[in-house]
Each structure stands twice: as C-alpha cells, then as structure tokens.
Amino acid sequence: MNATRLLALTALVFLAADACGAETPVAAATATPTSNPAIPTPLATGQVIPLWPEGVPGWKDIGPEKVSGTTYTNISNPRLIVYPPPAGTPSDGTAIIYCPGGGYVHVNTGGGIQGLFNPLGVTVFALLYRCQEFGAPAPLQDVLRAVRLVRTHAAEFGLNPAHIGVLGGSAGAHVAGSAGTLYDDPLGRTGSPLDRVSARPDFMILIFSVLSMEDPTASASSRKALLGANPTPELMAHYSIERQVTASTPPAFLVHTQGDTTVKLENELQVYAALRKNNVPVELHLYPLGTHGSGQDPNFGPTALWPKLCEEWMRFNGWVPPSPTSLMKVQTATEAAARSGKTAPKPAGR
C-alpha cells in the first residue's frame, strides 16, 4: 500500500467519530478507533467534526465544558462547527478556518462570520480550540490539525485544497496568525499521520489582532493565559507573530482601529512591516473609529466596510467568484492583466 493511500485511510479512521456525536473528551492514551470510517457529507449547518477522535494530545481532565450562548469555556474536546454556503451558491471551493476570540480564556463564536462569507460561496469552519487550561502549544496544535483535516478531506467536502484560509479576531487572530507562520513548527506536530499534510493556510485574515507576545505591544492578559504568568523571553519571541514571518508566510488582510483601547494597533503595524520586509502580499486597513471587536458597527462609519473590502480582496485573488454586485470594475488579477496588456500575475501566495 503506498504512503498516500495509507495516509488517507489512517486519517479516515481517526476522523470516524460521529459528526454529531458525544462531546466526551478522550485521552490520547486510551483512545480506540471507531468502525465507521466516514464523515457525513454533504456538510450540514451546525455539523460538528472532532479534531482528535484518536485522542487529544496532552489531554487532561479539566472538568466539564461550559457553554453560555455562543461562548465556550473550559474546552478539552477541540472541534469544528461547520457552516456551509447555501446550496447552489457559486463557489470557488474556498474554506475558512475561523478562530474566534476570547483572550485565550474562552472562545466566542458569535461574530457572525459565516453570515459574511457563506454568501460568497465560502465554507466556514468555526474552531473551538483549547485555551488557558492547556496553554501553549495546544491552540497551535488545534488550528494546524484543523487545516490539515480540511485539506485532507477537501474532495469529500467539495472544496479546493489550495483555497483554505484562516481568519481570527482578537486572540483568535493570534491562533490564525500562528497557523500562518508556525505551520511547520515541531510544536504543532503530534506524531499523527496527518502531520504529513501541509498545514500552511493559503491566506489569513486578521482583525483587531493580538499578534505580539512581547512588551510593549502584547496583551498582558492573553499572554498570561497562553504562556503563563512568567514566560521566558525565548517563549514570548517564539509566539510573537511578527518575529515568525518569512517569505513563505501566506498573503494577509489586516484590520485594526485607533479606537481600540483593548489591543494595540501596533500588533497589526508590526506584522505588516514584517510581511512587507519579506515581500509577502498584504493589505492593511486602519480606521480612526471603532472599539475592540466593533468592526461591523455602522456607528463607526467606514470601519464597518471592512468585510466588503475583504470580499473584493478575496475575489481579486481568486478565492471567491466574480459577482455582479462587486464594487470593482476589474474583479480579478487576470482581468487586470488583460486590461494592461501584460501577462497575468501569479495569484497571491500560490
């Protein structure tokens, strides 16, 4: 049996847990594979896909998970919640791993992200990742497993394996940014056959972002939750996204405001500078108004337009289809090249 087939079969065994089944955490040392080797498809709204049915790495008993509305606390069973686009929606097979914020204390999925991206033909996978009860590197392991899982099963999910991005807000942006910069980090590998699958996202969207773990830019509370009360300088540097950018980092769309008094906009500025230094395509939007996480509030004026600008960025780069409602006369990089009489540029990050 060749390695590719072995990987696929092993992955299916690992992911055999019923998508809507029990939420009981499983310790890695005691996990046993189930006999049902399939994830139900087509994907359904609200469907749950466990990340680690073979056993959560570094699992420990932290007591029951707590759920209040869209806020999840004390997560020990990381998983994806699926939000596919409506049937018949034009699509380029793009998926977003959505990493909600919560300061690494909890995960709040109530940002309405699926409502922004589903109409564009984008499948959204909301990631419930481990937080302060586990600390680093658990969130990194969870987001990289999510990318690997979705990429491995792209055919079954009706997705393009080269169109898998990450999106995060606040501390969730640190999770997403970690995927975009630490996708090959040994700390993100667990010995699973799925480790052989590329965990590099094809793009990243970072909003009101916690990105640096170093003073004076860091969010002290998020850093403590992720790295502990007294992290070493080496640990803080390792998890500072601006220090981990390379020429292979995926293209990025960044949003922040001067009105954010919770997380400093220097997080975005430092990462923008690092991306620019490494010639990584990046689009940065900074606005004067808007409190932390208020990016869709029309009371803050143009700040609320960032989703439409992000849509056009994705369309130009080929991640969502052309649309008659687009604000742009030239919607794609190929069209732009044709109008200029030049050869079409290579799409961002490909």
Report on the structure:
There is one protein chain. This protein is an alpha/beta fold and 350 residues long. The protein has one domain (3-294): Alpha/Beta hydrolase fold, catalytic domain (Rossmann fold, 3-Layer(aba) Sandwich). Helices cover 27% and strands 14% of the residues. The strands form two sheets. An eight-stranded mixed beta sheet has the order 1-4-7-5-8-9-10-11, with helices on both faces. Helix 5 links the parallel strand 8 (164-169) and strand 9.
Secondary structure blueprint with pairings:
Blueprint: H1 3-14, E1 48-50, E2 66-68, E3 71-73, E4 79-83, E5 95-99, E6 106-108, H2 113-117, E7 123-128, H3 138-152, H4 154-157, E8 164-169, H5 171-181, E9 204-207, H6 220-227, H7 233-238, H8 241-244, E10 252-257, H9 266-277, E11 282-287, H10 306-316, H11 333-340
Parallel strand pairs: 5-7, 5-8, 8-9, 9-10, 10-11
Antiparallel strand pairs: 1-4, 2-3, 3-6, 4-7
